[in-house]
Amino acid sequence: MRRKLVLIGNGMAGVRCIEEILKLDREAFEITIFGSEPHPNYNRILLSEVLQGDTRLDDITLNSWEWYERNGIRLFVGETVTEVDIKRRLVRTDRGRVVEYDELIFATGSNPFILPVPGADLPGVTAFRDIQDCERMIEYAKTYKKAAVIGGGLLGLEAARGLLHLGMDVDVIHIFDYLMERQLDPTASKLLQRELEKQEMNVLLRKETAELFGNGRVEGVRFKDGTSIAADLVVMAVGIRPNVDLARRSGIEVNRGIVVNDYLETSVPHIYAVGECAEHRGVVYGLVAPLYEQGKVLAEAICGRKGKPYEGSVVATQLKVSGVDVFSAGEFMDGEGTESIKLYDEARSVYKKVVVRQGKIVGAVLFGDTSEGRKLFDMIQRGDSVEALSLSLFAPAALGGKGSLAAAMADTDVVCGCNGVTKGAICQAIAEHGLKTVAEVRDYTNASRSCGRCKGIVAELLEHMLGEEANRYAAKETICGCTDLSREEVLEAIEQRRLMTVKEVMSVLGWKNEEGCLKCRPALNYYLGMLYPGEYDEEAESLFVNERLHTNIQADGTYSVVPRIYGGVTTAEQLRNIADVAEKYNVPMIKITGGQRIDLLGVKKEDLPRIWADLGMPSGYAYAKALRTVKTCVGKQFCRFGTQDSTGLGIRMEQTFERLKTPHKVKMAVSACPRNCAESGIKDVGVVGVEGGWEIYVGGNGGTHLRAADLLCTVKTEDEVIEMTGAFLQYYRESAHYLERTSKWVERVGLEHIREVLFDVETRRALLERLHKALSTTTDPWRDIVENERVQQLLFRDIGDKEPVPVE
Amino acid sequence: MKVEVGTLEQLPKRLGKCVRVGNRELALFRTSDDQVFAVENRCPHRGGDLSQGIVSGEFVFCPLHDWKICLKDGRVQAPDEGCVKTYRAAVKDGLVYVEL
């Protein structure tokens, strides 16, 4: 008997929680969802894109109708729950439907707050909260010219931007002294206002609305100071209120939101609240990241696997307002007991501020250049001391101040005053001509040609350009022909706008070919998986057949099976088992691979799940852009020359990193002495044992582009090998282009730069943390498929044989 | 003659399915905009299994060597050359029919 789970509210937070529940236990609940809107769950954050007219509802849908169906969820849209009977545990809707529940989740979100002024109910007045509002605004823009947006917060400015885009004249009315006071301090706000006014937005500050007037429909807004403006469309964007009426009527404790504890439980047993309607430790969150965190905690609790409680979130806002990058986090206003460090460049509209309390970094605002936002956010969360900020403001002292001045300069800053050469011009020359010395830079650009005082900075810039920085100046390489955007631009947009699917990325970023191609679809699949470990499920239809079916396709249309044999060490029992399976399925060829494993070749597609089940071994990922194999030599257990236990370390490495998805395939090897029987010198990561330690080599390749690996470092213990390898792999995952082997990547970004990153203790720790997060979300794909009849049906079985029976 | 080859349910969007009718092997595709196409399941290059290719709009990429084939007229796209046989497909009441 499955327990009955009812979700009130079909929005981002609630449905995300359901997704998490399905991941933990597909069979636990019979799930019913009620949504007042007539749509499946869509990405509300992207409503402004819809308003701008280049995106359709379909493009921002997070869960399609099919998704609900596939997961056996009963969905009632356009239907509102009007009553919860907590004694009899049932809900009633406005259509008279009665549904019982064992567990009930409130995810009712927020309602837009409509000012209680005369005329608020006139036709032509709308909120900006859902698809219907969007459609209404698009409709009005076709016939009317003059819009007023009440509310100069983020939502109001997005609405205003959209209306401008639709060709209307827009007044933004704000009650406060400056715009977006919740996310910005006055200085940043003024800069923003200047940008918006450049874009033809008209901003009216310190205006309190007294009434909306009009004959039969809205014609204007009158303020308390007696002034008024004309408007045929008025958008109310003054704030949102948690939607708590139903909870309050049902006898659940409500404050501003529905009061919940650290496991999202309300005051009534078996009733939970998640998302914008919930109030946790006195805070109601409106950003997507905290809401998803809540959903995860609730899913674990409701499935009876209570894990870490939800302890609240430090909120950072990183946004693009009308094309301007804005970031703020923590306590960003100057107040009693705070000091701040500021950088204000009016000419370039760049402003940065870090707020310090008792020597600790507690908040920040960035305007115009938010590249350090992520880093500052981490510092604020950790409560780093102000010492961690170097003088060049925000270049972390961890880099030893090296290149920090160069890094902190803007491209338009002049490096060589005598000859008027900017940083941008120097960097471009370095990138384009592969310049290596100060003299070369001088000959190409004239910088440091006269008084020579800037030689030091030129040298710093050369260093600075050895790493990833160089990509910014080199000719832009787009992901593929479907877009004009580079990998970096796409990744940044994915993170900033929290794009969650391949389709969403393509539609929001204006892909020229909306179906994508062989290059970009698998690439986006990888990037989304890397950015959202455990949250993003790869799209089968965007994967090459090998990765879709977890096998290698062969020339004759059959497939091959390579099980994991850790470190190339097997047992008699394992070999017997493999032999039995090979016989049972008449496998035409059994081949020993170069990676010290066994390949069963010539298998039929529909036999694959059966073979995997009979083998009972994990996938060797011989088909994947992931860790393939860790080749080992015999090592000191038997070898006369072995200095170390290479098989032991190889097995441990393979067990640690197996299933890790990477931009391209990764091969590793461990040898126990410099004779290198495992060929560590031509692997992506090769380890060589020496007396008292291990050498780690990276970026080797034994394939098309033969390349000897570079020595990254020498370490003493196996633990250090695992740690360094892990950090290296994660940095590769995060900064390489999809399908770029480590050999190419190491050459592109430079070994020195990689060392700099990996040897910094703090950076390494952060890389490893992200690596472990990614690893913790992986499961063996063969077993998953063996246990999933639906996927077998979908991907491994043909429709089959049909006798041609003519119809008609 | 018109033959019933399966249900629309059996065709997930943008994932090909193979069906054998008598001695013919067909690849069936349902595109994002819900059109259904049927082509001979053999890439003219090296006989690749087209039903396992990546689908983009009205094209499929052969999984063996990335040849791009138009599902509408069966033509191989430049720079490669060739053609696969196409079959008229239709959907009615959730059933998929192919003209042989």
From TrEMBL, chain B:
The keyword Oxidoreductase applies. GO terms for molecular function: 2 iron, 2 sulfur cluster binding; metal ion binding; monooxygenase activity; nitrite reductase [NAD(P)H] activity; oxidoreductase activity, acting on paired donors, with incorporation or reduction of molecular oxygen. Residues 3-98 form the Rieske domain. Pfam families: Rieske_2. It comes from the Bacteria. InterPro entries: Rieske-like_NirD, Rieske_2Fe-2S, Rieske_2Fe-2S_sf. Keywords: 2Fe-2S, Iron, Iron-sulfur, Metal-binding, Nitrate assimilation, Oxidoreductase. GO terms for biological process: nitrate assimilation. The keyword Mitochondrion does not apply. This is Nitrite reductase small subunit NirD. It comes from Geobacillus stearothermophilus.
